[in-house]
Amino acid sequence: MISKILIANRGEIACRVMRTAKRMGIATVAVHSEADAGALHVRMADEAVAIGAAASSQSYLNAERIIDAVRQTGADAVHPGYGFLSENADFAEALEAAGITFIGPPASAIRAMGDKITSKKLAAEAGVSTVPGHMGLIEDAEEAVAIARSIGYPVMIKASAGGGGKGMRIAFSDEEARAGFQSSRNEAKTAFGDDRIFIEKFVTDPRHIEIQVLGDRHGTVLHLGERECSIQRRNQKVIEEAPSPFLTEETREAMGAQAVALAQAVGYASAGTVEFIVDGARNFYFLEMNTRLQVEHPVTELVTGIDLVEQMIRVARGEKLAFSQADVRLTGSAIESRLYAEDPLRNFLPSIGRLTRYRPPLEGPRADGTLLRNDTGVFEGGEISIHYDPMIAKLCSYGPDRHSAIEAMGDALDAFEMEGVGHNLAFLSAVMRSPRFREGRLTTGFIAEEFPEGFALGEPDGDEALRLAAVALIAEDALQRRAGQISGLLRHPRRAPGPDWVVSLAGQEFALHLSPSPEGGVVKTEEGRSLTVSSSFMPGQTLSRFVIDGVGMSVKIDRAGSGLRLRWQGMDVRAHVRSPRVAALAKLMPVKLPPDTSKSLLCPMPGVITSLAVREGDVVEAGQVLATVEAMKMENVLRAERRGTVQRIAVSPGASLAVDELIMEFA
Question: Which residue of 374, 471, 560, 658 is surrounded by the most CB atoms within 10 Å?
């Protein structure tokens, strides 16, 4: 019997496990580092224990301190979540030796599958299709180059103990193989304490599809269908869905059978995932097995109706699975969008800071048959730290079919308010609007191929631009009417009353006539087109619902200088509402130019300078390494954009820098 569970993790996954445990009537214990003393998972738990400093190695990766916390609180079981110690066989064995139930698979299965080299060999022995590659350990960069040549470029360089995209690089040449080997090794040592590296063939035009398996301790292993995880950035999943829009029922059953065979071969019990790479002809190859709960497990729960955390707990209690393979049904479609603290406009570099606004959309079923779910570990006013993974939340949508799930996700992203840190909401919205995504034409190269020059905010055109202009006009009218009613504070409204206005946004101008009403108004263009607008907007609101000619849209609205900032469906535009005379004068105003930073290397993200590759006075060439910055467990190499001479270095290794802080200057 399990009466109290200690969750050996943090953030959203700790909160996720607690929700199921509480529903099952099981008490919960949180552990936390010094940096997480006020975190949401600490607030949610029945008890909390401090286990060390902010650095993971001194807290969440310290097995001895976690076991001490178990003894201190009298917990009889530990759920590891994902990451940290979740796939550490020594930790599982230490718990077993102490008489504490590990809510996960046997240590032997973790050890067998945790090493990617060993797992490939076991998979082949179990009859699972595997990717061609070099399964032996690689000593240095030159050996990596020789192996890559023998396999044939492109190749994937991977950390043997890796996971979550850490310690992974793709190489298309000898130079990239050398650099990738060293970076993968450094990253793997930092993230996992294990710098072993192996190389395998990189399958072109691949899809990343994984099979969820679930086994009990009585020999039964089932699969719960697949998840499509092809939308990735730097080998890190960003958007996942279930089921895959690509698989046939025949392919699904073949992949499921191989996943079950592998799990049975290693005596697997609990929830786990077998990951495959799938080419355009639906040939599939084993990548790895994750012997833990996956980040993207909610989409499987939404389409199967099975609570995976509950099943893990029941299996750990020794119960048999209460359903068979024939009982597993995939119904509808579910999508998960990972919200990260990062700046998509700066190549997705991490961001830190305080969440000055954090207001997710309302969770639960909706009238159109869709459903929203938001798994998170943060709250408004909380801090996003440099010490841990930058994921803020996992927003999930469910619909009777894929189209409805996509529409629900798009609406939910529009309605998600988040301020204080850089975030990827606009990017996720842009993916939802992408014709290629909506058609299900996915590969792991989707982001690089759809955004070859990097992500840029979308620009409204046609009806989109006109609708946003109408939104701006209605909002500005409400603001000015309120301002004119504030006695003694504003003797003169910012604009004279009148029906005719010019709205400028995204380089376009719209001459509009407004007939206001308490619910919104009627907006007419100079060409005679009429738009009926109803609005929930009130001054002070940052998110409002507008219905224009029967079509709804949720728009974030903020005052920006003399204009308005409008955010909707991945677009972020500035709009000005002026009288015709003021609009004509505004065109005569000079444009303020940004400062020239072409001779400066600025830190692109908050992070720590781990190394400097040049000295003052050095002449550098385009592409030459200048410095390395580590942020949120990722190593980022900064290179010269052009030839130049290093005039001044403003920092030293070990320095912690903010975004845009000076690293060095060039003559």
Answer: 471
CATH (residue range 105-131+207-331): 3.30.470.20
Question: At 567, is the secondary structure helix, strand, or coil?
Answer: strand
Q: Which of 210, 275, 288, 635 is catalytic?
A: 288
DSSP string of 277-289, one letter each residue = EE-TT--EEEEEE
| Catalytic residue check, 288 | yes
Domain covering 462-586: architecture: 2-Layer Sandwich (3.30)
CATH architecture, domain 335-456: 2-Layer Sandwich (3.30)
Question: DSSP character for 175?
Answer: H
Instruction: Report the top-level CATH class of 4-103.
Output: alpha beta
Burial code (b: 16+ CB inside 10 Å, e: under 16) for 440-463 equals eebbbebbeeebeeebeebebeee
Architecture in CATH for domain 132-201:
2-Layer Sandwich (3.30)
How far separated are the first and last CA of the chain, in Å rounded? 70
Q: How high is the pLDDT of residue 492?
A: 47
Helical ranges in 98-200 per DSSP H: 107-114, 116-125, 141-151, 174-192
- Split the chain (667 residues) into runs of 10 and give each run's mean pLDDT: 96 98 98 97 98 95 97 98 96 97 97 86 92 82 94 88 77 94 88 85 89 98 98 91 97 98 97 95 92 98 98 98 98 98 87 94 96 98 90 97 98 96 95 97 94 91 95 94 69 59 95 93 95 94 95 95 94 96 92 87 90 96 93 82 95 92 95
d(CA 310, CA 189): 34
Report the predicted TM-score, pTM, of the whole model to 2 decimal places.
Answer: 0.84
Give the pLDDT of residue 481. 85
